[in-house]
UniProtKB/TrEMBL annotation:
Residues 31-56 are annotated as: Disordered. One of its GO terms (cellular component) is ATP-binding cassette (ABC) transporter complex, substrate-binding subunit-containing. This is Extracellular solute-binding protein. One of its GO terms (biological process) is maltodextrin transmembrane transport. GO terms for molecular function: maltose binding. Belongs to the bacterial solute-binding protein 1 family. It comes from the Bacteria. Pfam families: SBP_bac_8. The keyword Transport applies.
Length: 444
């Protein structure tokens, strides 16, 4: 019995060996080890994947700007931010002194520059002269619908846009509260309104023995004179620059204009001819001037630099902005007709007039941004312009959009300097201005 079992085990083991042996002998051979591909010899001019891609040389833009030294420094800072986003664009700057920025100087600059930042009033004359290229494509997205009417109208000519607004800086009236209270104790915080009350203002100062100039004006700024006339009359600040019916003629036939100009003539001795810089604001806070016509940025900056106790004696009045038109004093970027970097210039202008750049500019300078939405969002300490209607500043276009506007203003400035120095007398000054407008109408 035991031998049978042993024999059975041997037989079963033999059968298993017969089945397993073929499987073992037919097992696949291990595959050959992959052979490494020969290393490719790299072309010396080809960038490796790990190195940054090679780029073309950056476009070098020549940019000139009508700006003071502080304004130029801010422009360079903002441009550096643009270059960080667009390393393919490099900018070389040149500053133009604001006192030298006439038509001839700007025309010369455009011969060698790609882009110029200049006053809005110069955009149309330079476009008509053939010195500019249209910049419609520099308004990306909703940038065009963001613009105020008063600014956009200064960019348009012949169906195209010739500039991109960067900012604007309308005039305000600043009052010394203490001088007001001393001269008008019955209404210490009431500001003169209309020709009759303005005519009483110098008289009240004299009656109360207040030793202060009744008005401070910058003799180098003809816009300041126009702004004051608008304050007194409550009328548009550009009416008497337009030689048309109910336009410039109204400056000499309207009783309110006549009263305002007569007041200037009769009370010339009480006008302080002073530029709003240096010690101007300290003297103003101390009571040297009763009122002054200055740009909004000058007022904001002037009060900010005073001690709180001194600044509290001054009051900024922007009520004139509720009229149809005040001088915007805007500045815009324009593109030279001789640029060789049009695409790069358009990109750079779009970036330099973008929302963030405008906010920075307003915060640093007090000049106003050109995007409506910045006022609607209540960003910073901006004046409330979000609710301005279609018939109110800054949505109304100027009456005069003729290319000769800068020449009219230059002549007005010359006449203003002559008048403030004592010549000519008022009647002669009035006649010279009327003659100038008549000539402009005939030339047009």
């Amino acid at each position: 019995m035991g031998r049978r079992k042993l024999l059975l085990v041997i037989i079963i083991f033999g059968i298993m060996v017969l089945f397993v042996s073929p499987l073992a002998t037919n097992a696949p051979m291990p595959a050959d080890k992959p052979v490494a591909a020969p290393e490719k010899t790299q072309d010396p001019g080809e960038a490796s994947p790990s190195s940054p891609p090679l780029t073309e040389d950056p476009a070098v833009l020549q940019v000139a700007a009508v700006a003071d030294e502080d304004g130029m420094a801010l422009l360079e800072q903002q441009s550096a931010k643009v270059s960080a986003v667009h390393p393919e664009i490099r900018v070389e700057w040149q500053r133009i002194d604001p006192g030298e920025a006439d038509f001839a100087e700007l025309s010369d600059e455009l011969d060698g520059a790609d882009i110029v930042l200049l006053p809005n009033e110069q955009v149309k004359p330079l476009a008509v002269a053939g010195s500019l290229l249209p910049v419609d494509s520099a308004y990306p997205g909703e940038a065009l619908s963001e613009q105020f009417g008063v600014l956009l109208s200064q960019m348009k000519w012949n169906g195209y846009l010739w500039g991109v607004p960067r900012d604007f800086d309308p005039y305000v009236l600043v009052w010394n509260r203490n001088v007001l209270a001393s001269a008008r104790p019955d209404a210490p915080q009431s500001i003169p309104s209309g020709p009759a009350q303005w005519a009483e203002w110098p008289q009240k100062l004299a009656e109360k023995g207040v030793n202060a100039s009744w008005l401070a004006l910058d003799p180098s700024d003809p816009y300041a004179l126009l702004a004051w006339i608008g304050e007194v009359t409550g009328k548009r600040q550009d009416e008497w620059l337009e030689p048309a019916e109910a336009g410039a003629d109204a400056a000499w036939s309207s009783q309110s204009y006549e009263q305002a100009l007569t007041l200037l003539s009769q009370q010339r001795g009480g006008i302080a001819l002073a530029s709003p810089g240096g010690t101007f604001w300290t003297a103003f806070a101390a009571g040297q001037y009763g009122a002054a016509v200055v740009r909004n940025s000058q007022a904001v900056k002037g009060l900010a630099e005073l001690p709180a106790s001194a600044a509290s004696s001054l009051r900024i009045d922007r009520s004139a902005w509720e009229t149809p038109f005040v001088w915007p004093n805007g500045e815009s970027f324009v593109l030279s007709a001789w640029t060789g970097n049009e695409d790069a210039a358009m990109t750079w202008i779009s970036e330099m007039t973008g929302r963030d750049q405008q906010s920075d500019m307003a915060r640093e300078t007090g000049r106003l941004p050109v995007y409506r939405s910045l006022y609607e969002s209540g960003a910073g300490d901006l004046p409330d312009l979000s609710g301005a209607g279609a018939q109110r500043f800054p949505n109304q276009a100027p009456l005069s959009v003729a290319p000769d506007l800068p020449e009219k203003l230059r002549t007005l400035g010359t006449l203003l300097k002559q008048w403030t120095s004592g010549t000519p007398v008022f009647a002669e000054w009035k006649g010279q201005w009327a003659t100038l407008l008549a000539k402009a109408e005939n030339d047009g």
